[in-house]
Amino acid sequence: MGVAAEKEKPKLIDEKGLRVDGRRPDELRPIDMEVGVLKNADGSALVKYGNTWVLAAVYGPREAVPKHMTLPDRAVLRCRYRMLSFSTHERKSPAPSRREIELSKVIREALEPAVLTELYPRTTIDIFIEVLNAHGGTRTAGVTAAALALADAGIPMRDLVAGVAVGKVDGIIVLDINENEDMYGEADMPVAAMPGLGRITLLQLNGVLTPEEFRVALKLALQGIKRIYDMQKEVLRHKYAVVEE
Amino acid sequence: MGVAAEKEKPKLIDEKGLRVDGRRPDELRPIDMEVGVLKNADGSALVKYGNTWVLAAVYGPREAVPKHMTLPDRAVLRCRYRMLSFSTHERKSPAPSRREIELSKVIREALEPAVLTELYPRTTIDIFIEVLNAHGGTRTAGVTAAALALADAGIPMRDLVAGVAVGKVDGIIVLDINENEDMYGEADMPVAAMPGLGRITLLQLNGVLTPEEFRVALKLALQGIKRIYDMQKEVLRHKYAVVEE
Amino acid sequence: MGVAAEKEKPKLIDEKGLRVDGRRPDELRPIDMEVGVLKNADGSALVKYGNTWVLAAVYGPREAVPKHMTLPDRAVLRCRYRMLSFSTHERKSPAPSRREIELSKVIREALEPAVLTELYPRTTIDIFIEVLNAHGGTRTAGVTAAALALADAGIPMRDLVAGVAVGKVDGIIVLDINENEDMYGEADMPVAAMPGLGRITLLQLNGVLTPEEFRVALKLALQGIKRIYDMQKEVLRHKYAVVEE
Amino acid sequence: MSVTPELPIIPKLKANAILNLLARGQRIDKRRLDEYREITIKTGYVPNAEGSAYVKLGNTQVLAGVKLEVGQPYADAPNEGVLIVNAEFIPAASPSFEPGPPDENAIELARIIDRSLREPRVIETNKLAIIPGKKVWIIWLDIYVLDHDGNLIDACMLASMTALMSTRIPAIDVNKETGEVTIKREETQGLLPISRLVTTVSVYKIGNYLVVDPNQEEEALSSARLSITVTEEGLIAGLQKAGLDHLTETEIEKAIELALNNAPKLITAIREAAKDIRAKEGINSEGG
Amino acid sequence: MSVTPELPIIPKLKANAILNLLARGQRIDKRRLDEYREITIKTGYVPNAEGSAYVKLGNTQVLAGVKLEVGQPYADAPNEGVLIVNAEFIPAASPSFEPGPPDENAIELARIIDRSLREPRVIETNKLAIIPGKKVWIIWLDIYVLDHDGNLIDACMLASMTALMSTRIPAIDVNKETGEVTIKREETQGLLPISRLVTTVSVYKIGNYLVVDPNQEEEALSSARLSITVTEEGLIAGLQKAGLDHLTETEIEKAIELALNNAPKLITAIREAAKDIRAKEGINSEGG
Amino acid sequence: MSVTPELPIIPKLKANAILNLLARGQRIDKRRLDEYREITIKTGYVPNAEGSAYVKLGNTQVLAGVKLEVGQPYADAPNEGVLIVNAEFIPAASPSFEPGPPDENAIELARIIDRSLREPRVIETNKLAIIPGKKVWIIWLDIYVLDHDGNLIDACMLASMTALMSTRIPAIDVNKETGEVTIKREETQGLLPISRLVTTVSVYKIGNYLVVDPNQEEEALSSARLSITVTEEGLIAGLQKAGLDHLTETEIEKAIELALNNAPKLITAIREAAKDIRAKEGINSEGG
């Protein structure tokens, strides 16, 4: 959005109502999920939304080194979101950007309502989210991956959390926007939720919507989240089944 | 002083012997003081010397977080002087400059002789000085404001501390120099003292003076400090009286 | 080596087989050593290999301030190698470079095998190496100086450690390469060892050698190290003798 | 690393009092749940800034200032001015603020305000090129929290919007040969061009209640926050959920309603505060 | 400050088992002392990188990526491209890795790989000037350790060499008047010119035994390491001793032998992995 | 944050001995109260520096070096060279010095020396433009404390002034077309132009006594310090009070007197040390 919209904005919805990558407005990108991809981490997951690839790793609950950083009544979540330097078009400097600092907080707060931290007082649960390739929706794919990694680590949760970004492009509300739609569209709205409980845990909007457009966008996001959530459960069920055998 | 003096130096003393802002050589700028301007701080003060505006806040005596930074026989003073980024003509980067680090030390050492730190062993007294607008004399206005904030916090002192800068401009020794006099003058000498006890606690000189000029300048500074000190007492007395009612 | 070799490479070996500074291939630069050059440090040494001058200081064994950085079964070595800002042709920024961080590790690991750290559990031995002037071979001169400083501090060692760099210039393997030979030569190989025990504690190679050239170079380095080691012992013997008197 | 914060401790009795009142639709300071505290806005507060505003919202005090410098445009927008927003929670403002670089809360706040200004194109940056493609105005918006008694985002947004409304662009000399630009800060060439006004309304969830503009104690009891940016036309121009707890779809709907209802009053307060300065420069303060 | 590290604790029984097996010329995972674990290399792993490679060496996983930017050459090599190597041990990869800037181990690893590429002139940087003396290609090689199960240097070297082999140079537009260069990343002008392949073989001393490619437990028991860079022609192009203990001259000789014997297999693995990409661009992957 | 320092502990007996002697006008090392320790100054100490000086003042050892680089002038002084002063208290110099960036004491020292050189225009920076308005000499003066036995400011000022007196300006090549400047450090074009010599005299208050040039133990007992910069003409060119205690007007008067009396000896020591270098370049060392 914003500045780039001024110049050479490509057509984002064609005459058939399809998007730059051929999707319908309410269609997700091809989504792929894998859990247990790392040996050392207590839990891990690799999640792909099209060309957006995110790796999440979880360590914990574990003892925190500076004792005074723990809480007496529950576990502390520590969360770091960052992009590998070659995950973007222009190389990203490895120094943490203000954007990465903000998103680490936003993602932590998307996961906090789900984790039963009260079961592990005086411990720390570390969540590391690494964007391997960025093509729009990295924070929401990160939430989806982190929730899988938490489950893979055996950390009790109220429900899984899944996320997706909706947007407004060429006046149309669309699901799971990709990088081009993010750059040239009118609005980008990342959402995450615990679908089983109807609880929204992440909500941001960059761009301008009418109140009515907002309502439509939120509904569409929750529908997409439900579908991603079903895939998460399937992946975990499959892994669990394999272990059972 | 220095470099800028080479080019386009304006006349700093006119034919009537008056300064760029119309003051006589021994005249202070209009001075305004207010205490208790912040709700959260234990003590606070806003001090204005003309267009130089400084806010000071004091917290303490309070427990220090890293225990090993306290002293067994008295309170530790911690002092930070800094300029808001829009307080200067060119925007000041928020990263602490070497000048700000030096002045934090100089101001702390101007206040140390006054505070009865021995009454509060193993605690910390924090002094935060923020320059809201800079027009010459920020460090001395900072000392004056910090002393008021310490008094407002109820911290016992041997005496109040007040400060003012004197200078040499167009060959004349003048009181309370402003930014233009500082920039184009020949010398700038900030002084702070406990006037009731005749103790000088801050003395710096940037520029060149003969020994005789120095003596004259020091006397003038001490006279100005006495007047500022009387205003400090008046402001505190007024606040105290109001509380009494 | 490398890039600079492309342009204006000077002749490094003349028709008589002598090097740019007139040395034979197997000749060391004039070497000078002095111990106990600092009053405050527990041990210190100043070592010169030609125009490469290195100062080393040792403090310890001493109590470490953050307790958790000690080891229960032996002393921790802490080592910092750095170049003064005016020690090089272009001014070196005082911020630690990646090269300095790597060499601090390489030098520490050259000294670790020699120090009887097991005698001083839960303590720290600090080694500070300052390059006063750099003209090739600063890391190996640093190892030589640090070993002397450790001995001067009275810290028990299995053997002294001495170091020297060999190199390949104009196709010839030479001892104790200087800055020009390092810059325009084909290979630079710093080596350090405990000669009395036949133990090699530092080995690096920047550049390309055949396996046979490598063997020749290593032998030459060990010969040079032996000669430097004899000087180390002489300097310590002399100091000890003086103390005895 | 973002880390679960330690929540400030509110004495049990006080906490119960606040919650019991909320159940009856009341606040400890007698306000309604959807009511802001008294707002004081002073423009032109800092003489050396090109624009500035001091805001007192209850006992929360913040200061926003604007400095203009000449710099290079971004490669992908060569003819547009550049906005850079920073926020700092100075340690004077609360016993819980530490000296040092901005933490995640200050960074989040600055980025919310940045997006709230950028997305609805509040500043007409396309009018801020000096030498197209080479030199443009850089707008440094710096925000300082001086005293923290809750609802910092709204207070800082009010101060930021007002500071921008009252920003004067200094006169410049352009050296035609070298392309060097000299700023003459003693003269002005007019006001910063503003296309529309925006504000934020932050809605806090305390227990099961939604309130606006909490003081520090209420904020400490809140479990989630939704900051909603609203334009003068009533469009939604930004959202940010924060806090350890979730929101339901119904709560979000209700929060949006609270925002749309409160925004006009806040936008009026900004407009009033900037009126004199904009009138003086012959520009009407009704936005663009 | 470089500080003596705290060694990871290997249970006594496990340690004894490993040492007893070594005495019989065996490893806990049935390998010979001079045998590498299974190597998987995937090229072109990261779509947004100009070149990339994922390497799995046993359970060690690393990812190397190459980004090309346009920048200024060094003053002393005005017509050469510039290589910059960074490595990061991400905290996901091991419970012992901390978030934050690279520590001395990551810096040492990056510098070993940098020198291993630079000294034998692996990249033909002299072909990477765009406007001689003014604009050249900057080659950013960034290496991430994703999962640490020992022998990071060799795994990272394999990934780095393969990533470079598979790097495509984007097309560019040069503005003749201003000298400004625009990168068009969607098009390519060919592969990064590579003159020769190199690899490292890191030999670890455990007790009195020398082994290659240890897993994390073996590595924790090792007292010294010698990393040896070998070119495809069998030249030694770099050495780095590390660890708390020494090596004897004999041990060094033996380590060199192990390196020369193992290098060809590793170089073949790189060549194989990059074959398809280099074939597609019409360049044979046999090096230069 | 500037924090009250923990004072070094001097054994009670030693402290009493020092104070009792002072009462009788004596020092533990037999000096008078107004007497400096032996001063050794070596010029041209560091071959790679353009100028350098090693100073030993009693057991205090410091090293100052000057590097010249070509850079841009400040916008407000386009035809003047630029002086940048840094000081570092290396951890080798005292058990109380920590590795890391300069602390407030090192920064204060560097800034005192910077002002002492800048205010009386010691360096004729107006002669140091290369291409007016574009390229000037940048004078990097770096000061290292090697061994700390008290009175660092005066030792560092002596080293700095002497290093500048002995600084040779390298030859340069200016490319007329591009305006690029190449430094040829192997040749020299003359000495750095110096207009006058300055020194500092730091007066320390111990109990009720004023002394100059304390060793570390005396310094640890002192409660305040006044550093006075004096020019060769006997003018006061800088003052800096430090320490936890105050000074009275009378004490300040007396300190000034001590400074004016001691300065000529120190300035002579600098002049003597730099004599040979300045004579060799055909410039008389009597200042300007």
Low-pLDDT stretches of chain A are 1-6
The coarse overall form of chain A would be globular
Largest Cβ-defined interface? A-D, 52 and 45 residues
Quote the beta fraction of chain D: 25-35%
Q: Please give the domain count of chain D.
A: 1
The neighbouring-strand order within the major sheet of chain A is 1-2-3-5-4
First-to-last CA distance of chain D: 41 Å
Helix content of chain D: 25-40%
Give the SSE string of chain D: EHEEEEHEEHEEEEHEEH
Counting DSSP E segments of at least 2 residues, the number of strands of chain A comes to: 9
What is the domain tally of chain A? 1
Apparent shape of chain D: elongated
Brief description of this entry?
Chain A is an alpha+beta fold.
Provide an overview of this structure.
The complex is a heterohexamer, with 3 copies of chain A (245 residues) and 3 copies of chain D (288 residues). Chain A has 245 residues and is of the alpha+beta class. Chain A has a single domain, classed as Ribosomal Protein S5, domain 2 (2-Layer Sandwich), CATH 3.30.230.70. Chain A is 28% helix and 29% strand. In chain A, the strands form 2 sheets. Chain A has a 5-stranded mixed sheet with strand order 1-2-3-5-4. In chain A, strands 7-6-8-9 form a 4-stranded antiparallel sheet, sandwiched between helices. In chain A, a hairpin with a 2-residue loop joins strand 2 and strand 3. The longest helix of chain A is centred in the last third of the chain and has 34 residues. Chain D is α+β, with helices and mostly antiparallel strands and 288 residues long. Chain D has one domain: Ribosomal Protein S5, domain 2 (2-Layer Sandwich). In chain D, the strands form 3 sheets. In chain D, strands 2, 3, 4, 5, 6 and 7 form a 6-stranded mixed sheet that branches. A 4-stranded antiparallel sheet of chain D has the order 11-10-12-13, sandwiched between helices. Chain D has a two-stranded antiparallel sheet with strand order 8-9. In chain D, helix 2 packs across helix 3 and helix 3 runs parallel beside helix 5. The longest helix of chain D is centred in the last third of the chain and has 32 residues. Chain D is elongated. The C terminus of chain D is likely disordered. The chains are: A alpha+beta (245), D alpha+beta (288). At the C-F interface, strand 3 and strand 5 of C face strand 4 and strand 7 of F. Strand 4 of chain A pairs antiparallel with strand 1 of chain D.
